[in-house]
Amino acid sequence: MKSIVTDDCCSHKVFLFQSYHRQGKLEAAMHRVASAGNTSNSTRPRKEKRLTYVLNDADDTKHCAGINCLAILNSATPNGCDHLFTGSRDGTLKRWALSDNDATCSATFESHVDWVNDAVLAGNNLVSCSSDTTLKIWNPLSDGVCCRTLRQHSDYVTCLAAAEKNSNIVASGGLGAEVFIWDIDAALLPLAKTVDPKEEELPNGNLGLPLSSLRGLNTGNNMSFHNNQSRGYSPIVAKGHKESVYALAMNDSGTLLVSGGTEKVIRVWDPRTGSKNLKLRGHTDNIRALLLDSTGRFCLSGSSDSMIRLWDLGQQRCVHSYAVHTDSVWALASNSTFTHVYSGGRDLSLYLTDLSTRESLLLYTKEHPILQMALQDDSIWVATTDSSVHRLPAEGCNPQKVFERGGSFLAGNLSFTRARASLEGSAPVPVYKEPSFTIPGIPGIVQYEILNNRRHVLTKDTSGSVKLWEITRGVVIEDYGKVSFDEKKEELFEMVSIPAWFAMDTRLGSLSIHLDTPQCFSAEMYAVDLNIAGAPEDLKINLAQETLRGLLVHWVAKRRQRSGSQASSNGNIASSNDGTRNLPHSKIEVDDGAENNTIIVLPSFEFSTDSPPSIVTEGSHGGPWRKKITDLDGTEDEKDLPWWCMDCVLNARLPPRENTKCSFHLQACEGSSVQILTQGKLSAPRILRINKVINYVTEKMVLDKPMDGGSSDGASGLGLSTGQSQLSSLGDVSLRPGMKPWQKMKPSIEILCNNQVLSPEMSLATVRTYIWKKPEDLVLNYRLVPK
What we know:
Elements: E1 51-54, E2 67-73, E3 83-88, E4 92-99, E5 102-110, E6 116-122, E7 125-130, E8 134-138, E9 146-151, E10 157-162, E11 169-174, E12 179-183, H1 184-187, E13 236-237, E14 245-250, E15 257-261, E16 265-270, E17 275-281, E18 287-292, E19 298-303, E20 308-312, E21 317-322, E22 329-334, E23 340-345, E24 349-354, E25 359-365, E26 370-376, E27 379-384, E28 389-393, H2 400-403, E29 409-410, H3 415-423, E30 437-439, E31 445-450, E32 456-461, E33 466-470, E34 475-481, H4 485-491, E35 503-505, E36 512-515, E37 524-526, E38 540-542, H5 543-570, E39 614-618, E40 624-628, H6 643-651, E41 661-668, E42 682-685, H7 690-703, H8 714-717, H9 741-744, E43 749-753, E44 756-757, H10 764-772, E45 778-784
Parallel strand pairs: 41-45
Antiparallel strand pairs: 1-36, 1-39, 2-3, 3-4, 4-5, 6-7, 7-8, 8-9, 10-11, 11-12, 12-13, 14-15, 15-16, 16-17, 18-19, 19-20, 20-21, 22-23, 23-24, 24-25, 25-29, 26-27, 27-28, 28-30, 31-32, 32-33, 33-34, 35-36, 37-38, 39-40, 41-42, 43-44, 43-45
Helix pairs in contact: 5-6
C-alpha cells in the first residue's frame, strides 16, 4: 500500500507553538500491572483508569439537580446564624446561612463523585453518603474540607442515621444489603504508623511509611484516600438484611436502630453490638422512610404501599395505620414531642397528620415528588427532585394551630381509601398555595446531543431551555431559549466526520465528559479550523491532548511552583521525577526540564476560572475523588491522576492509535481522457481534505508532461522515491510565493465519489461516512472541471 504522507511531518515544524508540542526524551515504562486476581504473571493490559470532567454552571452557588437530603445546624448562640445543609444529585453539598427572608450559600462541599443520598450532623461533624459507595466526614463550618473518607459498602449508600445525644455514632445502609454502625471519633483517629524494617529507607521521601499506609494524612486537603478498612478502623456490622436498605433511624441515646428496605419488614437492632432484636411485618411494599421518638419506644414508617404506620416497639406491633397519601411515602418528619408527623412522597404532596386523632391536612402540593424534609422552629424545609429548596410555615412548636384553618380529613386505615377519595374528586385543598421562601436552583440538563464536530453539544434542561456548549472550553456559546430541541439539532447538522473521542452523561444534572485511553486520542483537527492565529496550514491538533492541557494547566503551574520552592529550601535542584516520587516503579519518567517549559493552552481549549470544571477520577488505591481544576494544588501525582494523563501533559506523549489512516483508490472518471499514474491503494490521514487530493492530481497531471528544462518523471521532479506518492508539500498553491512553472499551469480538477462532486473542504472521513457509505475501500474519481 502506498502512503500519502501529508500532515504527519507538520507536527515537527519549528514555529511559535513548538513549546507545547515538544516531545519527551525519556522512555515510559511499557509494562502493565497485572489485573486484580491475575496470579499467572500475565502481562495482559488492564483497562486504564478513566478521567472525567464535569462542566459547572456559571453560578456555582446553586444546585443543578434534585435535592436528596437536608440537615439543620442550629446556632449555639442566641444571635447566631442557623445553617441549612443540602445534599444533591449533582454530587455536592452546600451550606446555607439562614436569616428570616434570605439564605446565602457560604460553602460548597465537593468530593463525592456521584449522587449525595443522605447527610446527618453528628456532634461537630457533618457525615454524608453517596452512590459512589462512600461516606465522607466534613467539618461543617469549614470552607468545604473533607476530613475523612470511609469505604466499606459494596454498593450505593442510600441512608444514614445519627444519635442526637451520642454524637459519635452514625449508622449507614445501602443497596448492598449492608448496615454498618460507625464510631466517628474512632474513624477520625490518625492511622498508627506500622513500619516494616525493609521499608524504612524508601526512595519516596515518606519517612519509611509503606505506600499502603498513606491515606490522606493531610486533612487540610479536599482529596481523601481510603482502603477497605477505612484507615485501619472497621465499623460494627449489623448482619441480617438480604436485600437493599433504604431507611434508617436511631434513638437519641444511640441504643436502638431500625432499618427497612425492599424486604418490606422493619428490623430492630442494638447498634452497640450489631445484634438483631426483632422484625416487624405489616407493609406490603418497600419501606422508604423511618422515624424513632427520642426514647426509642415508638417508630413511624413510610412505604411505597402509600401507608404510614405507627409501631410500638415495646409491644412489637403496629398500633395505627394512616392512609394519607395516594402514592409512595418517601419522607417523614415529626415534631419534638412525636405527636404529629409531616409526610411527603411521590404524590407531590406534603401532609400534616395528628397521630392520636388521625386528623390529616394537606399543607402543600407542587409538581415535584418530595424526597426529604427538615423542621426549623416554626418552618419546614422541603427537598424535591427539583434543584430548588422550599420553606413553608409549619407551626412546629404547636402543629395543632394549623388544623384551626379547617379543611382536614380523617385518615383511613386502608391504602385504597385515599385512592378512592381522589378518584371521586374529593381531594383536599392545600393550605399553602406557594412556599414562604425558596432557595432557587439551576435547571438540570435532561437531554443532550453530541454534534458531528465532536466539540459542540446541544442540551435541553428541565425548564425547556436549549443551549449549545463547547466542551473543549466548558462554556455555553449559544443560549437559544425555549425552542424545539429536535428542530435546533437538525438546523445545526454538519456533514463532517470526526471519531467519537469521549463519552458523556447527564446523571449529575450537568455535562460529564469521560475520557478513556487510547480511544480519546483518536480525534484530530487542523489548527486553521480552530482559528489558531499563525499556525501552519497543515498543523494537526489532537483534541484530547489539548483538552487535557487546558484542564491541568493550573496543576502544572502549581506543581512547578512547589518543585521550585522545595529546591530553594533544600538548596539544590528539584528532581525531575518529582511527580512520581511516591512510586518506586512508576510508569512515567518526566523528561528533564519538561516541567520547566511553559504549557501554552490554545484559545479553543481555555477553561473558565470563574466557573471551572471539576475533575473526577479514581486514585490508585481505589479512592474516587472530585475537585475543581483550580483547586488542584500540585501535589497530585500518579496515585491520584491517571498515569496516561500525566504522560500526555508532562511529556507530550500519546499512546499508539489505530484507524488514523484512510485507504482509497484514485481513478479517472469513466470516459475521461485525463489519466495519471497511480498503482494500488493510497493511504492518507482521515482528516485529509479533498483539496489536497485535487492538488495531488493536478501536480501529477502537469509533472507527467515534459516541460522545458523539466523532468518527465513526476516523482523525481518532486524529489520523491519511485512508487511513493506524497502530498506533504502541497497546500493551496495559489497562496504560496515563488511558484514553480508547473504550478502556474494548474488545470481545474474536481473529485467525485459515487458520481457526486465533492467539496474541497470535505475530509476523507466525511466522504467515506456520508457519500461512500460502504465497508470497502473508498474510491475517488477525478476529472477536468467541465466548461
